Amino acid sequence: MSTLGRLKQQLLTLLKWDLQDCYLINKMKPVKLQYWILGWFSMAFCCWCISDKFPQGDNQPHTWKKLFLAHHWPVTVCKMSANDCQDPPDYWTIHGLWPDKGEECNRTWHFNVTEIKDLMSDMRHYWPDVLHSSLNRTQFWKHEWDKHGTCATTLQALNSQKKYFGKALELYRHIDLNSCLLKAGIKPSSSYYRMTDIKEALTKFYGVTPKIQCLPPEEGEKAQTIGQMEFCFTKAFQLRNCTTLKGESDPMQHAMKLGTKELSVCSDTLPTYYPSKV
């Protein structure tokens, strides 16, 4: 039985009064009886409130084992959206830093942009809101904090907004995906690449294989369009393969969808388009 179950069972046992208890209660003076009842209700309320906060092993919804650092290709993001993207960046930008389990883990911990004011210059450059060009727009960061950051805070190294966003920027610079692809001769082009060649280049460079997502071919097209790359890290921030191990959640939950278009894991057999313009 779980900790929660044991606590509730013990509470129910304590609240079962026999006939002798009832007799004693009837003999109490009204003032003492009121205090007695108030004490019991207070204890019951506290037990029920804290019971759900006890850790319950890996079955707890907010227990995670690895992090995904997601990069997205701005041109493809714009292609997926009906929004009018204005001059999307011509380099891979951050989509988010995601624990592999749990979403919106603490809805009372609200995003506060002043806590990351020291990071603002890097945030605007490496983690821009691709769909909205205003420099003052922070909704994208708020969304990432609310949905993923509040779950990451169970790790001490990520237990504040500044730590969470700062670590994502640090890992992004460490990966240096833009430079890696250029060194491998993979750059935006009107010609097609083979997905196996892209994977081979990345695996050779990093020692692990990232999860690569593409926009499937539209009607009349023959090529998929590369859109997102996710690199996986342990809780010690060491690179690891993104494959799902026994007992871990399915990373497919992180597929990106805009409107009716959705990214999915790239096919190794389809030609791959790495677009330079929308």
TrEMBL record:
GO cellular component terms?
Answer: endoplasmic reticulum lumen; extracellular region; lysosomal lumen
GO molecular function list: hydrolase activity; ribonuclease T2 activity; RNA binding
Q: Where in the cell is it found?
A: Endoplasmic reticulum lumen; Lysosome lumen; Secreted
Keywords attached to this entry: Disulfide bond, Endonuclease, Endoplasmic reticulum, Glycoprotein, Hydrolase, Lyase, Lysosome, Nuclease, Secreted
PROSITE patterns in UniProt: RNASE_T2_1, RNASE_T2_2
Matching entries from Gene3D superfamilies are given as: Ribonuclease T2-like (3.90.730.10)
Q: Which family does it belong to?
A: Belongs to the RNase T2 family.
The protein's name in its UniProt record: Ribonuclease T2
- Please report the organism this UniProt entry assigns to the protein: Patagioenas fasciata monilis
